[in-house]
Amino acid sequence: MFARLMTGAALLAVTAGMAAADYTLHIVHINDLHSRIEPINKYDSTCKAEDNAEGKCFGGYARVATKIAELRKELDGQNLLVLDAGDQYQGSLMYTTYKGDVEIEMMEKIGFDAMAVGNHEFDDGPEGLLKLVEGVSFPVISGNIDVSQSDVLAGKVANHVVLEVGGEKVAIISALATDTAETSSPGEAVIFEDEIAALQADVDALSAEGVTKIIALNHVGVNKDMAIAEAVSGIDAVVGGHSHTEFSNTKEGAMAYPTMVGNVPVVQAYAYSKYVGHLTLTFDDAGNVTAATGDTILLDASVAEDADIVARVAELAGPIEEMKSRVVASTDAAIDGDRGSCRAGECAMGNLITDAMLDRVKDQGIEIAIQNGGGIRASIDAGEVTMGEVLTVLPFQNTLSTFQVSGETIVAALENGVSQIEDGAGRFPQVSGMTYTFDASAEAGSRISDVMVAGAPIDPAKVYGVVSNNYVRNGGDGYKMFRDAMNAYDYGPDLADVTAEYLAAHGAKAAVLDGRISKK
Question: Which residues contact 455 (CB under 8 A, 6 or more apart)?
Answer without folding.
Answer: none
